[in-house]
Design a protein that fits this description.
6 helices; mainly alpha; 68% helix; globular
Length: 84
């Protein structure tokens, strides 16, 4: 579910903005095409959650969406695995 939310977030980002360019710098192994296609895995998303620089590059609606995504991921979805 987190991956789907991240996909929607990146899809809504401004592809020419500084935050989008920072994603390319932060994950140099991901090509720009993969970033545009929203190909992220859980560890990459968690690194972005802890990254203040990425958070500071976001502005306006992108920042509101990111903050909501972080809140939903941390509070609602959590990081707890089922016992089975």
């Amino acid at each position: 579910m987190k991956l789907g939310l991240m996909k929607n977030f990146v899809k809504a980002m401004d592809g020419t903005g500084s935050a989008f360019k920072y994603l390319a710098e932060k994950f140099p192994r991901l090509s720009e095409v993969k970033i545009k296609e929203e190909v992220f895995v859980g560890p990459q998303i968690r690194r972005l959650f802890r990254n203040d620089k990425f958070n500071n590059l976001l502005q306006g609606d992108e920042k509101k969406a990111w903050d909501t995504f972080r809140m939903v991921s941390a509070n609602f979805l959590g990081n707890v695995r089922a016992e089975n």
